[in-house]
Design brief:
By secondary structure, the chain is of the alpha/beta class. The protein has 7 helices and 12 strands. It is elongated, with a radius of gyration of 19 Å. It comes from Spiroplasma culicicola AES-1. This is FAD synthase.
Amino acid sequence: MEKKELYLTNEEQFNIGNTNIICIGFFDGLHKLHRQIIDKTKQLAQEFNEKWSIVTFSEKVSDFLSKQHNQFQSKIIKYSNIEQQYNPDYLFEIQVNQNTISIDKDQFISYLKNNLNVNKIVVGSDFAFGHMGKGHVDDLVAAFGQENVIVFQRVSTYSTTDLKELLKDGEIEQLNEKMGQNYQIQLENTHEGHFKIIDTFVQIKNANYVLLVDGKEMIAQFDRNKVFFKDYIAKQNIIVEMIKKV
């Protein structure tokens, strides 16, 4: 997987080849609907023997505008999971800034066609793009053709908002079922046995949880997004999997 940053300028050119099948989304949390979208993109690429890419964003436009951070999972974890589980030819990350969010919907479509050589797109039904989110799935269909735009309908029970609520309530087993894998968090060592969650902006219910740490199950106490181990000391940041609340 080759990761590239995009600034949506005409000068950006990539040695992709003649065609490129893509899916587009923020994919925060990689829940089951996200996985269906990515799986379909990879399947189409294999079927037509073409390159395929995931197009995502450095942050949500709403977070950029509000100057807040609400991401459900660390970007390091998200991109690592994408590479290990799917390994697309490219992962394109659109850099969200004042210039890129000012691009209108027609310019965005033109960029997909002329700079990324896109010929097929897989998206969720609620995908919006272009200045003020004025571009929608219908615009993609008009530009690429009905047969070249595969749309997955949004399911309210498989949304990042729903996952955040489960995390807030401590329903880790239900959360993991909806994600299709154990929820992972990145922890920074503050001092012996004490950690804080980094690069993730969620509220986790104060409780004791079973975590998978270096392949071993351990119990840790969560208190206001700080994590306390009784018998574990690490000198560096770690990534752990949440198993269940106890």
